[in-house]
Each structure stands twice: as C-alpha cells, then as structure tokens.
C-alpha cells in the first residue's frame, strides 16, 4: 500500500498535478498501484507472478474436475488401470491449468503494455484485453473448447442482464435463475426423450445414469424410465406388505 501511494505521488509530481491550482489529472492509474495483488513494482514481474500464482491455486481445483469423472463415471476402467487413469487426469489438469494461467497472464500483460506505450486508459482497453486473453483457449483440447464456450456464454448473458437491470433497462424478475434452470432442465429432458441424437454423448450418458434403472431394460424415453422407477417402487412396497402380513 505504501509503495502504491509512493507511485501515485511520483506520478502526480511528474504530471505536474501536485499543485491543485494546475488542474491537471492523471491520464491513468499507475501500474504500480494496479499491481497491489502481487506487490511487484515491475509489469513483467507482476504478470509472471500472477500467472504462477494462478497455476498453483487452480491446479487442485482442475485436478478434481478431471479426476472425479474418471473415478465416478468410469469406475471399472479406473480400477483396471489406476495408474493410467491418474496419469491422464494429471495431464488434462496441467493443460487446463495452463490455459487459465495463460488467460490471466495475457489479460494483465495486455493492460500493462497499453498503459506503458499509450500512457492513457480507456474502458475499451479491458474489452480488447479480454479478446487477446481468449487466445489462451487454444491451449485446451478442441473438444473442451466447445464446453468452455457453452459455460461462458450464459455467464456473459447473466452479466449483461445484471447490467441492464441495474440501469433499469430490464425489469427485475424474482427467482429468475430458478425459472431459467427449470426451463432448461425441461428442455434437456424433452430432447432426451424425443431427439436424443441431438445431445452430446457425455450429457446423454449423464442423464441416463439418473433416470435408467440397472435391473430394467434400457428405456427408449425418459417417460419409460420414470415408469420403471414407479413400477419398482410399487413392487418393493408390495413385498414389504407381504412380509409384514406373514
């Protein structure tokens, strides 16, 4: 904090804004102030430290994301080849963590380069930095890029809607996220029942794990799967009543 204050004081003195009568304003906040998360005065050191910190913090998170599906959704394969499963999960974790770390480094680096070359700040700079940082997506596997895009698109829409609600351009709808979740879930189940070929194999397999009963034949639709659940529950209740009667 002291270093950041010193940087502001030096910048004010250099710009001639130390005298309040001059009316001069700083063209942008000095980079040294923006580097308070790492405490590095230099831009290059700040970008490198931020990238390494992001990798260290995100690695356990991505390891759980990649390892849990191997262990839960493919339990038999994981037990047959545990070393290979851990190796594949670790490689995927390193790749995903490198992606998010590069994203952070590219974003911060773009902002610092603009500040040091142009010397001024503009809100469009941060949009441009986001576009540059998006190039880190090329580090990820091609199959994962579509998943990340599908994840980020609703977050972008959510941010846009929140901004428009804050500016009173849209009305605030109570429990809007819950309503949207129910509508999307209903749409997924409709596609699973009527047009299953339009769903990704991973999504289709995940839904099947929740609606398919292992002892029953493979259902042709979600409705049939639910009927199987009801029939199994009825038979279990009848068996319990017979046991109590005896």
If you had to describe this structure to a student in words, what would you say it looks like?
The protein is mainly α and 246 residues long. The protein is built from 10 helices and no strands. It has helices at residues 2-15, 31-34, 43-73, 75-80, 82-117, 123-133, 142-166, 176-194, 201-211, 222-245. Helix 3 runs antiparallel to helix 5 and helix 5 packs antiparallel against helix 6 (123-133). The termini are far apart.
Identify the notable features of this structure and list them briefly.
single chain, mainly alpha, 10 helices, 246 residues, 74% helix
Q: What percent of the residues sit in helical stretches (DSSP H or I)?
A: over 70%
The gyration radius over C-alpha positions equals: 27 Å
Cα separation of the termini: 79 Å
Order of helices and strands: HHHHHHHHHH
Number of strands: 0
Quaternary structure of the protein: single chain
* Strand content bin: under 5%
Residue ranges: pLDDT <50 for 5 or more in a row?
Answer: 15-24
**What sort of overall outline do the alpha carbons produce when their principal axes are compared?**
flat
Specify the structural class: mainly alpha
Q: Quick one: biggest sheet?
A: none
**Helix tally?**
10
Average pLDDT rating? 78
Question: What is the topological layout?
Answer:
Layout: H1 2-15, H2 31-34, H3 43-73, H4 75-80, H5 82-117, H6 123-133, H7 142-166, H8 176-194, H9 201-211, H10 222-245
Helix pairs in contact: 3-5, 5-6
